[in-house]
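Hey, sorry to bother you again with one of my protein questions. I've been puzzling over a protein and I'd love to understand its fold better. Take your time with it, there's no hurry, and the full record follows here:
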Amino acid sequence: MFENDIKQSYEKSAKTMRGDNKTFGAQLKPEDYNDTKIHINPYKSVETNYNNIEKSPEGEMLHRWQREHINKEYQSKEGYPLNVILDPAMREMYQVVHDMEMTNVFDRFAQQQPTQCKYCIEGLSCQLCANGPCRISTKSPRGTCGVDAHTMVARNFVYRHVTIGTSANIFHAHQAARTLKAAGEHPESGLKIRDEEKLKKFSEMAGLKIDKSINQLAVDFANWVIEDIHGPYHIPSRTVEAFAPSKRKDLWNKLGLFPGGGYSEVAYSQTTCMTNFRSDPIEFLLNSVRLGIANEYQGLFILNIMQEILMGTQEIKMTKQNMGLLKENMINVVTNGHMPLLAHVAIDLASTNEWQQKAKNMGAEGIQILGHVCEGQQLINYEGTHNTKGYGGQEGEWLSQEYLLATGVIDLFMFDYNCTVPTMPLFAERFGTKLLSVHPVIKLQGTETIDFIPEKMKEQAEKALDMALEAYSNRKASKRKTYVPNHVSECMVGFSTESVKKALGGSFKPLIEQIVNGNIRGIATIVGCTTARYGQGGSNIFKITKGLIENNILVLSGGCTSAVMEYTGLTNPKAANEAGEGLKAVCTKLGIPPVLTYGACVDIGKMTQTAKEIADELDVDTNMLPLVIGAPEYLEQKAVADACTAVALGWLVHVAPVPSITGSDVVVKTLTETTESLGLGKVVVEMDAEKTIEIYKEHIEKKRKELGLT
């Protein structure tokens, strides 16, 4: 077929399928793409104006402004997005980028309105086969294949959300296991085994013999994890058997929810989603709960254990956060994502006199590595990062990354998975930042990627630092304008099952006593992401958390929500004054804030371990605890898989914005009512912060009553 015939065939196909001979894609312009080889960058000629900014308040004035800000009823599309952005640094940098007319996350959300598909919002659209796309409505209540609304919504829930989220967390754990194995086999790699006691403890729980060298034990434990992850779906998982609560395991076996190997579970679930396979919506939803169990014990939990073995267990301390930590005369490296393994090796190197001197030889005051999004939340918590010269602090939440590059002082932005947005090449080109992907699972156009080889991490870290030095030299030679927002938050970090128990004297009994006497009514975890939606942007998280601590509910945070807690001052011990009298008394006595940050979104695994140990101390099942799981601004598939974990453990889980399940009353009823009748948890969807607080309070009081606590 000649080239012209091929082109005509596409045009004919488009006319047949769409009814015209044009496609939306064909009408896009070069500047609508992110590949810098295609993109005709209109921003190059636009001057960056750092002077025309409405500056944010600082210090205590900032915190007063933030609290006044969330009390105003104006968080709609009017005045968006400055009516929702609470981060003072992001507020300033948004103005810079917006005035340049550069693409950015908040403006892109506004551009998507009001055309976001209502069918997709309800889960009532399907693109699985060539008869589609199909949409279900009163006019056409079934897809071409005959699928009804209940099956379509449930199948979409599993296929589009839970399988992807589960596979991502298990893949992450697999990479950590590879790294732990390399640390044992190749000490020259730059990797370290920092928590030997934790390795011994969990190896023994796994049934491994621990009377051997630490390096060999690391290899054995890593192999044990990898083999379980790769096991068949019909063989019960050894990690679930070893680490899950015994009362829960009995229930899961009874309901047929005990999972096998994680990768195989995902493959099995995706197979059931194939066109004209399964049609029972209840089976899809129960399958989601089964995936949630694999997501926790073959993903989040075991991942947390291995990363702490490699980087040190969390340690409570005061530290700093936000863009004011950047230094114009230093080489600034930002590491972004969720897996700070290579970053940790790079920090070790950057902390040496050799690399600090290399930076000074380039004319810089030194070199510092700062974490961003969840990677940053992990780094500020790990004991192995504390007091290292090359570590600079945590930068912010995922919404801020484009604005971060717009400061002009980021020399290297190195990233693993996930939460690196596709527009970063445009910002890197405009503001002189070098981009580096440190895992082939994430690749951006025109960006260098290095393979993930744990055995060669020292070599790879050296390459990254060399790139940063070169980028700094180019920055100084270009004499481009820069601006660093003058905002830094003081926050207490490093909370985990071990560190909290240690602070309480080695037992959770003091915490339980405070729950029993009512000073602490219960615990809420506020976890996950931030979204660009109207009324959210961090504001929803802040409103809900403020309301909870005022009602004597202790809050644990994880993920980008932790950044919100930090830049609003809620992770500072001074915030005890904003809590109810009972919680305030506890926090003041212990010298802690009313919000305890556990770190990253993947550190939810540590929260479930804390809950398990409290339940064990009380000799009750996990579903009896006065506990609520909240994701008030959830963003992506991992959060949905994590919600399924919470349902499996018997907890009330709140999500907002509303997930794509409202197109089926059967799916909604199952997730909000039926699962609880089976001894599992349930899902609540609510956008309004005040109503959400009341839901949390009511559920916690219900659980207190069931435990006999008045």
